[in-house]
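**Discrete fold encoding**
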Amino acid sequence: VYGEDQTAAVSFGRFHTKEYATRFVYMPGVDKNGAYMTCGWRDLGGWPTMYGTRTSYGRIYRGAQLNGTGDQRSAYATDEALNIASKYLGIKYEIDLRNSTESGSQTTSYINGCTYGKHEITSYAHLFKNTPTTQFASIFSQLAKEENYPVYFHCVAGADRTGSLSFFINSLLGVGMEDLFRDFELKTFAQSGGTRNREDLSNWNEEVYTFTPGRYLSDTSFNALLEACNSLYPETTVWSEKMYRIMNEYFGVSATDLNNFLRINLGFVPEKFQNKAKATVNFVNCDLEPMLVYK
């Protein structure tokens, strides 16, 4: 335990976190009026996996953009927040999921000593629209490098694109479906981004992709993401195995990068994923309905 100036330790000891403990990280920011607003950072660690382990704390963090808009979408990160990210969390690599309009001319990280990576993606079922994006191969090529950890990834509000990547990461690590839902919904407790829930819509239809007053688009789109994943490789029923195939065979992430990612974050590569062949993008099993575009 450190004093207020964060320089001198005043107490030493050990403690155990409770099961299912989610580590929210204090990252102070301000809105456009200068009022206090958090940046919505969270540690992906702590979720139980199918292997009898838990996802590791202090390895991967998610949140909102650091140069925020100051409105309900995201805060401006303060110097204190950036100091926490560099000095106490030790962030080494930043994955920016925003498009060029949102990120502007940014080419370096605001976090001192952190490498900046531009990896633009969309979100939810739109990730599967038309040609599979090559960005997942790019993202996992960085997540496969031990020297890049701890990693921070974000979009604008840290909800939709960030939530989609979080879903893929936790699925690969063997996190159960109920906890995948919980991780998605936890964004609701941040000050930016609005409500996220698991509202049950079984079909992809115009309602899913059309914003209506008082209803967040992402409330329904998460289920569309689940349906998109379920429509692929129906013969593979174990969720982590299905996600491995989606990343490897559909998005073209190499088995080498996937296995290095698993080794770094689980401490081992599950036997079922060892000796996998080189990725080949396969459209034969990708029977997806046409997607509607929203703006």
